[in-house]
Amino acid sequence: MGLNNLYTLDKWSGAGMHRERITLSLMVCLVVSLVGCGQDSGPALGKVSGTVTLGGQPLPDAMVSFYPTSGERSAHGMTDAAGHYTLMFTGLKEGAIVGPHSVKVETGVQVGEEEVTPAAKVVQLPAKYNKNTELTAEVEGGSNTFDFDLQ
Q: Which domain range does residue 101 map to?
């Protein structure tokens, strides 16, 4: 073994190599943690959709919110012109946590940064559908349909 080989061994076993090993270890940990963040991670969810009507007519532009009684993360969806909604748990995941929920239906809720036009007529719903909700739902794994006919 010549002087060049001894210098190379010493260089790789010193403080520089220690920093490189730490950096490599941190990179491996980061990659492993990112792999674990796939679509299947997180709590058990059930897909939830349905229709909200008011007096038998579709209720558009209403926020439907499912709040788990366990206190975990809620799920929300807006009704379209036909009163149909689909809940989103996050921006990328559909559904709600499996289990019992308190359900709120609210109107006049601003979503995003779009300006609300003052000419838009907002239907006022009784507090029994939102602030003091009496609505409940039991979300199961798989697909769930919950229709709400408000009076």
A: 45-110+120-143
Residue 105 lies in a domain: yes
Nearest to 50, CA basis, from 62, 42, 38: 62
Round the average pLDDT of the chain to a whole number and report it.
80
Q: For the chain, how many structural domains are there in total?
A: 1
Residues 125 and 108 sit within 8 Å (Cβ to Cβ): no
pLDDT, position 41: 74
CA distances from 137 to 2, 58, 71, 144 (A): 77, 20, 15, 10
pTM for the full predicted model: 0.69
Q: Is the pLDDT of residue 53 over 50?
A: yes
